[in-house]
Write a structure and sequence with these properties.
By secondary structure, this protein is α+β, with helices and mostly antiparallel strands. It has helices at residues 6-21, 24-45, 84-104, 111-119, 167-182, 190-202, 206-217, 240-253, and strands at residues 254-257, 260-263, 274-282, 286-294, 299-306, 310-316, 322-325, 334-336, 342-347, 353-358. A five-stranded mixed β-sheet has the order 1-2-6-9-8. A five-stranded antiparallel β-sheet has the order 3-4-5-10-7. Strand 1 and strand 2 (260-263) form a beta hairpin.
């Protein structure tokens, strides 16, 4: 199974832990060594196949378990050039390495070489349907009726695609998921439903997320022990959904990246009209000590604590008309941004800041 993306994919979580904790010693001693090895692999691997239009080619590459539409069909194989998911993993790993070294002011002589590699990676392709293509190479068509969505790695788990930074790619990712659903992608596997749920959260699609949760609940994926199965029915012991469901719940309630905290980004508010989240860690060294919402009372209460003084954007996935600090002495720390539904919050170091919000 010639999938080369495994190390880079795992390196994402190594780096992501730093984004949450902001631990510079961990970044230096553990993250950078891992990312340097991943980059060294790609620097070697991407020299093995002739370039295409001045860009490196990922070959062999696969989009796990799926096969492109090819002409003639007898040529169809899953080992083809430029699986989009593999491009995303490489781009992310090398980008993270550059960011880490710049933060630490190390490896400055190597950064131009890594930047040059990034500049030679294939661009993403948006196909004739307007969807993010699963393979970025001529002659490889998309096969939508598959439970895997590896080509959407850049929107989940990665933070690369967002509606603000990359609106065209965000729209293309949304279309790619819609095409999967139109093709009948459904409840044949628990991990398929969970993967769609996680992507739906990043797409801010609360309706789709709720649909996936109800589909999962309506099929026999749970054993009497509450351990999940791979397929509906009490067979093939499998932990995909067991471990994924907490992640789905968290992505529904909290999205973050350095400098941004988004609360309730994909909450099905009609079904979950009130609730509480406590002690959740956000990227940037921020703890959401308390998040409580109540649609009946049109109220949201938030308490944030940061390990460092910083100004962030605070965004909500539901419409709010009012956000302010509960303590009058902290009112100057809150200001509305030009973007609708976004506020600038000046967080103090190691002190809780409580916000009162109204729907």
């Amino acid at each position: 199974y010639p999938w080369t993306g495994g190390a880079g994919w795992l390196a994402y979580y190594v780096y992501d832990l730093y984004l949450f904790t902001q631990d510079r010693d961990y970044l230096l001693q553990h993250v950078v060594p891992v990312l340097k090895e991943v980059a060294a692999f790609y620097e070697d691997f991407l020299q093995k196949y002739p370039s295409h239009n001045g860009r490196v080619v990922f070959y062999p590459s696969i989009s796990p378990e799926n096969t492109p539409v090819m002409t003639p069909a007898s040529q169809s194989t899953n080992v083809v050039p430029n699986a989009t998911g593999e491009i995303s993993i490489c781009r992310e790993a090398v980008t993270h390495l550059i960011e880490a070294c710049n933060r630490l002011n190390i490896e400055q002589d190597s950064i131009p070489r890594w930047q040059a590699l990034l500049s030679r990676l294939p661009d993403y392709v948006i196909n004739a349907d307007g969807a993010l293509a699963e393979w970025a190479y001529p002659g490889l068509g998309d096969k939508y009726n598959h439970r895997h969505s590896s080509h959407l790695y850049a929107i989940y788990p990665s933070l690369e695609i967002s509606p603000e930074r990359t609106p065209d790619l965000f729209k293309a990712a949304r279309t790619a998921m819609e095409k999967r659903l139109e093709a009948g992608l459904g409840g044949d596997s628990a991990h398929g439903l969970m993967h769609i749920s996680l992507i739906a959260a990043r797409l801010k699609n609360a309706d789709l997320l709720w649909q996936m949760l109800t589909d999962f609940a309506g099929l026999p994926f749970l054993n009497t022990s509450f351990i999940t199965c791979h397929n509906p029915g009490p067979r093939i012991y499998n932990l995909d959904a067991t471990f994924s469901m907490p992640a789905v719940m968290m992505e529904m309630l909290l999205y973050s990246e350095p400098g941004l905290v988004e609360l309730l980004p994909a909450l099905p508010i009609k079904q979950f009209n009130r609730g509480t989240l406590s002690g959740a860690l956000a990227r940037g060294g921020i703890v959401v000590e308390q998040l409580h919402w109540n649609k009946t009372l049109n109220r949201v209460d938030v308490t944030l604590r940061s390990t460092q003084a910083q100004t962030i954007q605070l965004r909500f996935g539901i419409d709010l008309r009012f956000v302010n600090a509960a303590d009058p002495q902290d009112r100057s720390r809150v200001s509305s941004a030009k973007q609708r539904g976004t506020w600038h919050i000046d967080l103090p170091a190691n002190r809780a800041l409580r916000l009162e919000c109204r729907m």
